[in-house]
Design goal:
Blueprint (H helix, E strand, L loop, with lengths): L10 H6 L5 H15 L4 H8 L1 H7 L2 H4 L32 H4 L5 H7 L2 H17 L3 H18 L21 H13 L16 H14 L1 H14 L7 H36 L38 H8 L2 E8 L4 E8 L15 E5 L8 H5 L12 E5 L9 E2 L3 E2 H16 L9 E6 L1 H12 L6 E5 L12 H7 L4 H7 L2 H7 L11 E7 L5 H14 L3 E6 L5 H18 L7
Parallel strand pairs: 3-4, 3-7, 7-8, 8-9, 9-10
Antiparallel strand pairs: 1-2, 2-4, 5-6
C-alpha cells in the first residue's frame, strides 16, 4: 500500500486507505485463487486452510506500521517514472538493466513490485521443495498480497491518488480500491478462472501492472464526472450512483484476474518444486506469521535503554543457561560457550529433540553479550529452540586465520559435534539455523554458505555482508590477516560463496538468508548493495531496513525479527 498524503476524509475512507484493495479485496483475491487451483493435493491443502490464507493475505500491510523503509516500494510500481508514459512494456524487466534508467535508491521510491513478486515466488518454491509447509503457506500469503496489489490500477501509476490530476482528484485511491469495493462488491459476484503456468514471475507481474495502468484513465474520468454530478461531494449518494456503474466492473475484472494470476503462480511454484505432496490434513498456524502475532512479542519489555538491562531481565535471560568450556585442539585452549535450553527441556518424561540456533556475537564481544545487553534474550527460554552462544576468542570473524587461529575449524569440527552430542538436538539441516550481529552477521552467513548441507537458515543483523569488497573494516582484517591482507580478505568474500550455491538455471542451493540493518549504521550501504545484487540474481531472501544505528538498542529490538525468521524455517521439536 502506498503512503498517501490524504486530505481529511471520512473515517471509513481513512481507515480503508491503509490497505491495498482493503482487507476485503485481499480476502477476495486469496479465496478466488484457492477456488481457481486445479484439483490436486495442492488444492486440498489450500481448501483446508482457505480462511487462514485469506486472512493472512493482508499481513504485509501490517509491516507498514514497522519502520522498514525497504517495504513500501514492494507494493507498487510508478510506471510513468521510467520515461515511457503508460507503456510499461518498454521498461527493462532485468533488474540490472532497469538501473540504467533508475538507480537502486530511485527504484526504492518508484516501486519494486515485479521483482518482489519474483523474490516471494522463489521463497515459496524453496519452502515447497524443502517441504516446510508452514513457511510455504506464509510465503503463499505474502505472494497473494503483492500480486493483488499489482492488480490495483492506482498501484501502477505515479498519479496513485489523483494528486497529479487537474483539478486534483485526491482520494480516488481509497474511493476505488476500498470504499466502493466494500459498498458494492460481494464475493458471490466473483468467478474463479483457469490458470496458466508461469515461468517468468517478473514478466507476469509487468503484464499485470500494464493491464492495471490501462484502467486508470477510465476510473479518473468516471470519478471526475461523478464528482461534478454530486457538486464535488464525493461522499454523497449522487457521487456513488454515478461512479459505481463504471468503476465496479473494472474492480470485479481486476479482482478476478488477480485470483487467477495468484493461483497460476502458486501452481507454478509447486510444479517447479517437484509437486511435493503436503501432509494430510495440514493446518497452518497463526504463530507461523511473523510480527503479529509473534513468537517473541513486542511491547512486553521496557523501552530499550541498552547497554543497561534490569536485574530482572538479566535473571530471566540467564535462567536455564549452561556455560561450559570445550577443550579445542584447533585453537589450542579451552573455549567457553553458553547454551540456553527451553523451559520444558528437563521436564520428567520429556524426550523431545529441539532445533538449534547458533547465535554469534560481534567484534570486541564474547559469548555472554546477548544475555548481558539484550532484554529480548529473556524470552529465549520460552521458545521451542536450543540457543547456543559461542565465543569467538577475539575479533576472529569466525574464520581460520593466522591472527586468531582456526576458529571455523573449531566451530564445525568441535563445537557443533559437542553440542549435538550432549543435548537432544535435531541433527539435520532442517534442525539448524545460525545468526549473529555485526561481525557475527558475517560469521553466520560465512559459516552457513560454507556448510549449506548443515544449515537451513542464516540471519545477519547489521552484518558485514559485503566482506571482501568494501573497506570499512580493514582495521579488523589487518589483525586477522597480518600478511597478504587484501588477498586473504577477498578469499573469504561473501558474494562468491553465494554465486557458488546458485545453479546455472538460477536455482538456489543454499540456506534461506535474512538480513537487516539500521539506516544510520556505517554498514548500511554494504547491506543495500547486497539486497540489490540478490534481486539482480533473482535469489530468495528477506531484507529489512529500520531506523537505528550500530548499537545494542537496535540489536535488542531486532533480535525479535531474527527469532521469528528462525522459527519459521527450522523444524519443530520432535519425539523422533
Amino acid at each position: 500500500m502506498k503512503k498517501l498524503a490524504l486530505s481529511l476524509l471520512a473515517t471509513v475512507a481513512v481507515a480503508s486507505v491503509s490497505h491495498a484493495w482493503g482487507g476485503v479485496g485481499h480476502t477476495y483475491v486469496a479465496k478466488l485463487a484457492v477456488d481457481s487451483l486445479p484439483d490436486s493435493s495442492l488444492k486440498t491443502l489450500f481448501l483446508l486452510n482457505k480462511d487462514w490464507f485469506a486472512a493472512a493475505s493482508s499481513h504485509p500491510d501490517r509491516w507498514r506500521n514497522r519502520p522498514d523503509s525497504a517495504e513500501a516500494p514492494r507494493h507498487f510500481l510508478d510506471g510513468e517514472r521510467f520515461g515511457f508514459g503508460a507503456d510499461l512494456s518498454k521498461i527493462p524487466q532485468d533488474f540490472a538493466a532497469v538501473q540504467k534508467l533508475r538507480d537502486y535508491m530511485k527504484l526504492r521510491s518508484d516501486g519494486m513490485n515485479p521483482w518482489t513478486v519474483r523474490r516471494i515466488y522463489q521463497l515459496l518454491v524453496l519452502a515447497m521443495r524443502e517441504k516446510r509447509w508452514d513457511d510455504a503457506m506464509v510465503q503463499a500469503a505474502y505472494l497473494s498480497h503483492y500480486v493483488a496489489d499489482a492488480h490495483v490500477p492506482f498501484h501502477a501509476t505515479e498519479n496513485y491518488d489523483g494528486q497529479l490530476s487537474e483539478p486534483s482528484q485526491k482520494g480516488i485511491h481509497a474511493r476505488f480500491e476500498s470504499v466502493m469495493l466494500e459498498k458494492s462488491v460481494a464475493y458471490s459476484e466473483l468467478k474463479p478462472g483457469t490458470i496458466t503456468l508461469q515461468k517468468d514471475p517478473v514478466g507476469a507481474a509487468f503484464a499485470i501492472l500494464q493491464a492495471s495502468i490501462n484502467e486508470v484513465p477510465a476510473i479518473l474520468a468516471a470519478d471526475k464526472k461523478a464528482s461534478a454530478a454530486a457538486g464535488g461531494d464525493t461522499f454523497a449518494d449522487a457521487y456513488w450512483s454515478a461512479f459505481t456503474p463504471v468503476a465496479k466492473p473494472i474492480a470485479v475484472k481486476r479482482l478476478e484476474k488477480g485470483g487467477v494470476a495468484l493461483a497460476s503462480l502458486i501452481a507454478s511454484a509447486w510444479q517447479e518444486a517437484g509437486r511435493p505432496t503436503p501432509p494430510a490434513a495440514f493446518r497452518a498456524k497463526n504463530s507461523s506469521l511473523p510480527y503479529a502475532p509473534e513468537f517473541v512479542p513486542r511491547g512486553q519489555t521496557p523501552p530499550p535503554v541498552m547497554p543497561v538491562v534490569t536485574d530482572e531481565q538479566k535473571a530471566a535471560a540467564r535462567k536455564g543457561a549452561l556455560t561450559f568450556h570445550i577443550e579445542s585442539e584447533a585453537l589450542g585452549r579451552f573455549v567457553p560457550c553458553t547454551v540456553l535450553l527451553p523451559k520444558d527441556y528437563w521436564q520428567s518424561g520429556n524426550t523431545k529433540r529441539y532445533p538449534v540456533l547458533y547465535l554469534l556475537h560481534g567484534a570486541f564481544g564474547k559469548h555472554t553479550d546477548w544475555l548481558k545487553n539484550a532484554g529480548t534474550a529473556a524470552y529465549l527460554a520460552d521458545l521451542p529452540l536450543i540457543v547456543v552462544l559461542p565465543d569467538s576468542q577475539g575479533d576472529s570473524f569466525y574464520l581460520d586465520s593466522p591472527g586468531f587461529g582456526k576458529w571455523q575449524t573449531y566451530f564445525e569440527k568441535e563445537l557443533m559435534p559437542e553440542v549435538e552430542g550432549t543435548f537432544r538436538t535435531i541433527n539435520k539441516r532442517e534442525g539448524r539455523a545460525i545468526a549473529g550481529l555485526s561481525m557475527g552477521g558475517y560469521g553466520s552467513w560465512h559459516l552457513a554458505l560454507d556448510n549449506p548441507g548443515k544449515f537451513c537458515a542464516a540471519a545477519s543483523l547489521s552484518g558485514v555482508v559485503g566482506w571482501g569488497e568494501g573497506k570499512p573494516i580493514m582495521n579488523f582484517v589487518q589483525k586477522i590477516y597480518p600478511t597478504d591482507t587484501d588477498k586473504r580478505y577477498t578469499t573469504n568474500a561473501v558474494w562468491p560463496k553465494i554465486e557458488k550455491l546458485t545453479a546455472k538455471d538460477g536455482t538456489w542451493r543454499g540456506p534461506v538468508l535474512y538480513f537487516d540493518c539500521g539506516k544510520d549504521d556505517f554498514l548500511i550501504q554494504m547491506n543495500r548493495d547486497m539486497e540489490r545484487r540478490l534481486i539482480e540474481r533473482g535469489l530468495p531472501f528477506e531484507f529489512a531496513e529500520f531506523d537505528g544505528a550500530h548499537t545494542w538498542p537496535y540489536w535488542d529490538e531486532h533480535l525479535r525479527d531474527v527469532l521469528n525468521f528462525t522459527l519459521r524455517h527450522v523444524a519443530p521439536p520432535t519425539e523422533k
